[in-house]
Every structure is written in structure tokens, then in C-alpha cells.
Design goal:
Layout: H1 3-20, E1 22-24, E2 31-33, H2 38-55, H3 62-85, E3 98-102, E4 110-113, E5 117-121, H4 125-128, H5 131-146, H6 149-170, H7 174-182, H8 186-192, H9 197-217, H10 224-236, H11 251-268
Parallel strand pairs: 3-5
Antiparallel strand pairs: 1-2, 4-5
Helix pairs in contact: 3-5, 5-9, 5-10, 9-11, 10-11
Amino acid sequence: MNRRKFLTYVSCGCCGFVLNSCSTAPITERRQLKIVPEAKLNAQAAQIYEKIKEKEKLSKDTKKLEEIKNIGKKMEDSIGEYFYKKKMDDPTALFKWEYILIDNKKVRNAWCMPGGKIAVYTGILDVTQNTNGLAAVMGHEIAHAVAKHSVERASRGTLLNIGTQIIDIASGGKLSQVNRTTGMNTVGLLSQLGIMNPFNRKQESEADYLGMIFSSLSGYDIRETVKIWERMKKLNKGKEPPEFMSTHPSSDNRIKDLNEKMNKVILDYPPIKLS
């Protein structure tokens, strides 16, 4: 079989594989590519989470940790109840929720791994300032996990690897030769050139929107979400990169987008009554 026929068969096979691997994000119904199994990522995340707990200094502030756990539990229950009442598959069905507070004032961050493994850094508490603010941050991070953004990223990475292999075959191995000669990884280079950046900004905007929904369903005041980004903007003191160079929306665009969607979220997703 010559190279052209081989590539035709491979390309057709890949297209069918990709089409069968497409699904939609919960609530937003944005089309997603999911090649990598969720259970696999959840298991890997759980292992990494345990290592992080061993490596990082965990806060002894039991009161704040209890607040984090209480917010998380309300969101767990509200998200599950929402999808149950809508007669939809619960995207958190495979989650094994867990929460830690990492004692690091220099890090203004929080994250949620696949499977509901959550960490909040003490540095973000100066930005959140209150329970509604903390709920807004946690809602955003939980939204990444609920919308399976890690599965999406892993799947896109897998597809990009397949694509570069096909290009390498088509070029008679020239791509591999370039990689060996220059010491560059083509997949990594393509990522740096921005092929994945717009995709990540979509994820961030989606997490902003879903995060507001989850906070509202859980009974928190989502007006605090905008105040958080206003405080974050002041703390950054104009140091954030231009949006086209970043995987995250700019603070100004974020604030504008949140303000535009806020009233509709409050009306469409009021606090849910748990059964």
C-alpha cells in the first residue's frame, strides 16, 4: 500500500473515531472531544492528590477548613440535585470529593482535580474575604471538574499526538528528523504557538459561567464574583499579560462577561431545594 492510500485510511479512521468521541458540556451544551476515559484521569488525580498532601504544608486553621468543606458539601448536594431534577446524568457521579487547605500565603489560587479533589491556598483568602467570595472561587474550580475540562485537554493532547504522527508519516519521517536535529518537541511547540490557547480561554469562560450557576444553586450571593475579580485586578497592578497571549480571559473581559450573565443566572438558577 502506498503512503497516500495509507494516509486516506488513517484519516478516515481518525475522523470516525473523533466523531464518536464527541459529547457536550453540562448546561452549556458546548461540544467537547473526549477520547481519554474519565475514570482513568480520576484515578491518576487521586494519586497525585495524595502526594500533594504529603509534600505541601497543610493549614492548621480548622475553622477555615470546615468552612471550605461546608461550602463544598452544599455544592456537591446542589449539583447532584439539579441534575436529578432535570433527569440528566450527574457529571459528578464518579467523584470522591475531598478538600484541603494549603498553608501558602504567596499563592493566590485554588483548584479542583478530576474526581472532585479540591485544594484552596491560604493566599487566596485575602481575595475572597468572605464566605460568598470563597464559594465563588470554589464554584469556578468545581466547574472545571464538572465540565470535564481535564478530560477535554487530555483528549486534545492525544489527538494532537496522533496528528503529528500522521504528518510525520506523510513527510517521510521529516518531522521526527527535525525534532531530533533541533531537540524540539513538535506537540509542545504547537501548544506554545497558541493552538491550544483559545480552547483554554473557552474553558475558563465556561467555568466562570458554570461556577456562578453552582454558587447560586447552593444559595450563595453570586454578586461577590465580580468583586473578587475587581480585587484581583488591583492586586495584579496591571501585570497580567494581554489576553491574546494568555490562556485566561483578561480581568476586564471577565468582569464584563460576569456582569452580563449575572441577572439571568440569579433568575434561572435560584437556590435549589434539596429532597
